[in-house]
Amino acid sequence: MESIYNFTLETLTQHLQTQDCPHPKTAAIRIFHHLYRERKVGPLTEGQISKKAINYLAKSTSFDLAKTISVQESKDFTVKFLIEFCDGERVETVLIPFPGRYAVCISTQVGCAMRCSFCFTGTQGLKRHLTSGEILTQYLIAWEWLECYRPRKAAQPKIVLMGQGEPLHNFEEVKKALLIFVSEQGMQLGTRRITLSTAGYLPGLKRFGELPLINIALSLHSPFNSIRSQIIPLNKSYPLEDILATIDSIPFKGNRAINFEYVLIDGLNNREEDARELAKILLGKKGIINLIPFNGFPGAVYERPSEERMAAFQGILSSLGIHATIRTTKGSDIFAACGQLKHLLEGS
Asked: Which residues of the chain have pLDDT under 50?
């Protein structure tokens, strides 16, 4: 059966029209309000939509959310969910604490084809894309948990598409999910509160204008193609200069800016020459530089730099006119930090 969460408002209306259900668009809007405004799990009842629509949906669609297999809580209040879909495939989703509010770090694929060498997910390979409904239900599950267990911090969470997978490699399903997240009849989430992270998957990046006006984060990680290709093998196909040129062509409106993500790996990309070349290619660009200390995982060949070396790298950027922040690591004690998601890890 098709998940009700896989439908956009338009496709749900068409779905009901095929069976001559009365007032299909009105019924579709009521279903959307039920799922996303009221966030109720389960089918609607007679009086909300027609009996014919109820009977048809009962035979053709599922109103079930994905199954939560486990929930882990970090000492810093990060929360990691292991979520299972109807075919038995699993992903991890993370609630990340910020002052006054949380963000939900959502996965877009089971595994990932990019095989970035700093990322535990990359060792899993790609098993399949997630559907738009599987992307959406991660958010609903995390928000419901937040309301139950941390109600004082349960304001509508932000979204970061930074979990398992490359979002732009699963473009169509991510696009459908985003349209529901921001739509008036859907979750009504402001576009400024959604950030999509990419390793630089150029075919999807060139279509970025088709998406709602969300924020974008580029996994940069080195200003040199030779080193970046070692960290992100995708760079061999889509080199950095092509990615930056494409990003420069994206019309960022208002005060939106790109987030440049830079994982600091000791002895590989945290040298003085790395900082100086990074400043050279980013000077004058409208963006924010997030320096992310490498987070270890079983089998990793990299090391995390010392606090002193990270501060020195930041200082060089600052002296060259580049504002950069060092991101605070969250959830590393439960393997929920950047680059650590992989549900096959024992104990997840």
From this structure: 345-348
